Amino acid sequence: MFLFLFQACIACAQYPGDRESEEFEQWYLDHVPECQANHLGSPSKMESDGMIAMFERSEEKRGLRYVTYVGDGDSSTFTNLKAADPYPGVVLQKKEDIGHIEKRVKYHLTALKTKMKGQKLSDGKGLDGRGRLTKDVILKIQVCIYILISVIYL
Description:
The chain is mainly α. The chain contains six helices and two strands, in the order αααβαβαα. The chain has a two-stranded parallel sheet. Helix 3 (46-62) crosses helix 4. The model has no long low-confidence stretch (mean pLDDT 84).
């Protein structure tokens, strides 16, 4: 079973009456068990809260402990997970999602090409062009990084 976190509930949002009324209060009390809004806080914290909940219930529900977290490098989820300390005395490890690393490499190299457009390097040529940082070269770099990381994680 997956844990889904929602900040809003369609039924709550579409309630037709006055939200200050006693009718709404009674409706809401009856609705709470099925209400989809099960997360309070910022959207950026939803991933962390969901992951912490999964780790904390894993022993009871699955009879196991997750000791490796696979995630993207651009989130604070792992930091928050370690701070929650779901298994006291157990050191959690983080593995980077290779796909995210590849995307970040492509993003940064493409951004560098854009930033350097029209500028000349020390040899008088631009960064882009034949024998330079083309889309094909960026793709080759991504493949090399994928292979390198795959070997490291084996």
